[in-house]
Structure formats: structure tokens, C-alpha cells
Amino acid sequence: MNTGTNDNEIISRVLRGEQSLYADLVKRYQNYVFTITLRYTNSREDAEEIAQDVFVKAYRSLADFRGDSRFSTWLYTIVTTTCITFLRKKKLDTHSLDNEKVFETVESTDSGFKANQVEQKSKVQMVNKAIRLLSPDDAKLITLFYQGEQSLEEIGHIMGLEPNNVKVRLHRARQRLKEKMETHFEQEVKDIMN
Amino acid sequence: MNTQPSIEERLWDYIDGIATPEEKSIVEQLIDSNIEWRNQYHELLDVHQLMSNSLELDEPSMRFTQNVMEDIAKYQIAPAAKSYINKRIIWGIMGFFMLTIAGFLIYAFGSVNWSGGGSGSTTLPFNIDANRINSFDFSKLFNSTYTSVFVMVNAVLGLVLLDMYLGKKKKQLQEKH
After folding, report:
1. I want to staple A7 with a disulfide (CB 3.0 to 4.6 A). Which of A35, A71, A159, B156 is the partner?
2. Which residues of B touch A44 (CB under 8 A)?
3. Using the 8-state DSSP alphabet, how is residue B143 labeled?
4. ipTM given for this complex
């Protein structure tokens, strides 16, 4: 990910009227934003709609970005609120963090593509498919921590939680991911671990 | 079994690099000396490396950036909230409430008969007559003209605020259409 300094420079110039430069910020963060929105919706169309909405909202509120935090942290906060609003509007189940039934539902509905996963030996595919079996909150936490390069404090700011709470949730999320991999990709995990 | 989460949490803190220097050296010693710790550490480290190196980002459609840019062309950057929130209004509201509370306190203390009271063995610089406190008729205070004025002013302020809120909403809707 790019440094905050570059982001701040771009933001200053966009605020001074160079609107086209905003495209640089969009290109820089679109994959991160889209990945997180996809964790919530499991639908590419919806995820793209939300991601687009996020960038529009961020643009309109750009003057409110004070630079106290990194732009990415500020942007992910908008992602979280937009996703929650979208899901509320669509009356979709947002899945609670500890709702094991949700995970079971995901597993049962995904049995079609699981058959393919078993055949695939790629670590990358295995991890990315296992993460889709997690709840949106777990998947988002792992995504922000490992891909979004956000610290526990920053994730806390994004999700409105205390850093200690984030730490505990991250531990649980990783534990669940490990369990998912062990349950669904037993052989692959053995190959990797040995 | 009970120690399992604790070991795991401590190991994750160590792997994530958020353990304190003291905790770090303790965990390192435990990994070196205790086989259970060592096995668990390697297991978690494998998971950590797998996640660090294998997670992929999903990509939106090729037109995504273009779509966003076309969308934002319709909008203006809104002025920063701090530029349109008038601090004088906030200070004014705060001042009003402070004055109201102060007025109430002055009125309440003014109604107390400080010279009266028994000769109790209290260490306070003044005497409080328990009978007088019990016999104080609070309904008089809340039925007085002061209370009516207070409620009236609050009701008017509430209506003004509601009008401002609805007016803003109407304006926003008009802007959208």
C-alpha cells in the first residue's frame, strides 16, 4: 500500500480543484475496498455498487479528512458504515460474530464450489476460499490486518472497537480460519504444514 | 485445556509483534524449553505466514474507476463540517442550560431558611433541620411560574430545532432531485 504522505498530497490537490487526480486514489484502494465489500455481500454486483458508493461518499466528504489518521483508515471507516447501511436497506442477514449457524449455512450453500476446491492444490486458492467461509466480520478483520496493513488501533477506529477487543476478535477469527482450513482442506493443510 | 487460549493469545501477540519486551523474552524461553509451546508456535506461525503470503485481493470490473469518476462529476466536495458548524450556537445552547441550572440552584437555595434548624451535634458549618427537609413541599417549586416559563422556553427551543432539522432535510431532498 502507498504511504499516507502521497495520499495527503493527492487529497490536497483534489481539494484545490484537480478532480481528475481522485482517480489515482480510487485505483490505489479499489481492490481493498472491493475485497471488503465482497466479504459482506458475497455478490460481485452488490459489492461493486457499495464500493462505488464508498468512493463517492469519500469524495464528497474529502474536506472533512483532517489527516489525523491514514486515508486508508478513514476510507475503511466509510466502507464499514456503507456496508452496514446497504445490508440494512436490503434486509440481509449481517451475521453475528459468534453465530456458528451462519458458518454452517455458508458451508452448506457452498458445497458446489467446495468440490472444486478439494481438487485444487494451491495454497493461495485454499486460503482465499477458506476466508469466504468465515463470517463477514471475521473476514473483514483478517483482510484489514493482513491485506489492508491496518494496526489493531486503526482497525479499532474503523470498527468502533477498543484495540484489545480487536485483538481478541482477531485471535478468534484466525482460529476459525484455521479450523475451516483443517475441516475443508485437510489434505492441503497437511501438505503445507509438513 | 484451560491454559490453551492463554498460550495461543500470548503466541499470537508474539507473532504479531505486539508483545512487550518482557513478555517477548518469556515467550521465547517457553518456545525453546517447552515442547507444547514450540509445537503450537510453529502451527500458528504457519497459519500466519499462510495468511500473510496467500491472501488475494478481489478486483472490481475494469470500468470501476471510470464509473466512480463519472459519478463524482455530478457532485461537489461538501464544505468541511467545522466550517459550517457555528460554534456560537453551540456556546449559546450551553450557556442557556448553564443559566437555567444556575437559576434553579439560586432559587432553591434562596427558598431555604438558613437561620432555622435545631442544635444537632453536626460538624457542618451550618445546621440542617431534618424535619424542615422532610416537610419541604417540592410540588410548590415545580408548580411555580418559574417551572412554567422553563418548560415554555424549552418547548419553543425544541420546535425551533425541529424546524431547522426538517428544513435541512427538505433542502437535501431538493438538491437530490
Report:
1. A71
2. 60
3. T
4. 0.71
